[in-house]
């Protein structure tokens, strides 16, 4: 059996849409779906043992109802997908991240119920995207549009294998086009670029195009049915990826760093904060 797709829910409509996205992805991958909820406990409640027990029980009841709502939603959408649920213990950010161990990917939303364990970007979602050992997909509010295009940002062609593999597989599963983007940042100059700097930028862009072209030949052999092209742009990478998200089914960004340690970058966080569609954060290999 394939590894599961995991999705975290909290009962909110936004998290149920994330569950729908996860169910569709599990169906594409012929994988089981595991739906988890982490009710947690507000930090200030921990000092008042009697009241904290009452609140914890209430929150677990809400979380259980959220799980049931998610199961009902995904069962209607993808009835053939095998589904199980898990009510997690411990701090939500840590518990949800740990639930991704051994998963194909984990899916989280960007806005939650706000009452408990809300999946709000900047807390649970950001923690999962920074620490999870498998790819994390952060689902925005609107997920229904289909564009038949996947976008992947490549910082260094030699250090983007995991992100590229994930992006090519996602494109193959959706029968979508793939756009591989590498951004060349322009030097900052008050009165324009001097000729030497302009020439240097042009040379860097040309070399990047050559390397990306060579790299794509290998991936085209592995995924011959995927129509892939590379684009070298002179723009801040976060800006261009966030802009492209409006027309993409998924934007893929690599996460560099030591496994088990946070690898989130300013680019990753900027894309997550401004994208119009789902964003996949893929940890580097090794």
Q: Your description of this structure?
A:
The protein has 286 residues and is of the alpha/beta class. The chain folds into 2 domains: 5-139, HUPs (Rossmann fold), CATH 3.40.50; 149-283, HUPs (Rossmann fold, 3-Layer(aba) Sandwich). It contains 8 helices and 10 strands. A 10-stranded mixed sheet has the order 3-2-1-4-5-10-9-6-7-8, sandwiched between helices. The relative contact order is 0.14.
Give a short synopsis of this structure.
The protein is of the alpha/beta class. Helix content is 42%, strand content 18%.
What keyword list fits this structure?
Rossmann fold; 10-stranded mixed sheet; 8 helices; 42% helix; alpha/beta; single chain; 2 domains; elongated; 286 residues
As residue ranges, the low-confidence spans are 112-122
Give the amount of beta strand, in percent: 15-25%
Largest sheet: 10 strands, mixed
Specify the helix fraction band.
Answer: 40-55%
Give the helix/strand class: alpha/beta
Question: What is the approximate shape?
Answer: elongated
Which radius of gyration do the C-alpha atoms yield?
A: 20 Å
Report mean pLDDT, rounded to a whole number.
83
Q: What's the CATH superfamily of the largest domain, by name?
A: HUPs
CATH topology of the largest domain: Rossmann fold
Distance between the termini: 24 Å
Q: How many structural domains are formed by the residues? A: 2
Number of helices: 8
Give the strand order of the largest sheet, numbering strands 1, 2, ... along the chain.
3-2-1-4-5-10-9-6-7-8
Instruction: Determine and state the CATH class of the largest domain.
Output: Alpha Beta
- Number of strand segments: 10
Give me the strand/helix succession. Answer: EHEHEHEHEEHEHEHEHE
């Amino acid at each position: 059996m394939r590894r599961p797709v995991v999705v975290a829910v909290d009962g909110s409509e936004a998290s149920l849409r994330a569950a729908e996205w996860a169910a569709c992805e599990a169906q594409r991958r012929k994988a089981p779906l595991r739906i988890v909820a982490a009710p947690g406990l507000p930090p200030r409640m921990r000092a008042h043992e009697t009241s904290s027990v009452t609140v914890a029980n209430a929150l677990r009841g809400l979380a259980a109802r959220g799980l049931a709502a998610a199961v009902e939603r995904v069962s209607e959408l993808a009835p053939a997908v095998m589904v199980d649920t898990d009510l997690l213990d411990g701090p939500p950010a840590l518990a949800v991240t740990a639930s991704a161990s051994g998963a194909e990917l984990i899916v989280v939303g960007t806005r939650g119920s706000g009452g408990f364990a809300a999946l709000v970007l900047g807390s649970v979602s950001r923690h999962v995207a920074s620490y999870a050992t498998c790819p994390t997909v952060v689902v925005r509010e609107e997920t229904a549009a289909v564009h038949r295009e996947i976008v992947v940002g490549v910082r260094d062609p030699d250090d983007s294998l995991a992100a590229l593999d994930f992006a090519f597989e996602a494109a193959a599963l959706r029968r979508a086009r793939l756009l591989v983007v590498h951004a060349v940042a322009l030097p900052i100059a008050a009165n324009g670029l001097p000729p030497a700097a302009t020439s240097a930028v042009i040379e860097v862009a040309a070399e990047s195009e050559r390397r990306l072209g060579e790299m794509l030949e290998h991936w085209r052999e592995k995924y011959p049915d995927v129509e892939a092209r590379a684009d070298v742009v002179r723009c801040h990478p976060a800006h261009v990826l966030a802009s492209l998200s409006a027309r993409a089914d998924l934007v893929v960004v690599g996460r560099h760093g030591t496994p088990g340690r946070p690898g989130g970058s300013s680019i990753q966080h900027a894309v997550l904060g401004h994208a119009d569609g789902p964003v996949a954060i893929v940890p580097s290999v090794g």
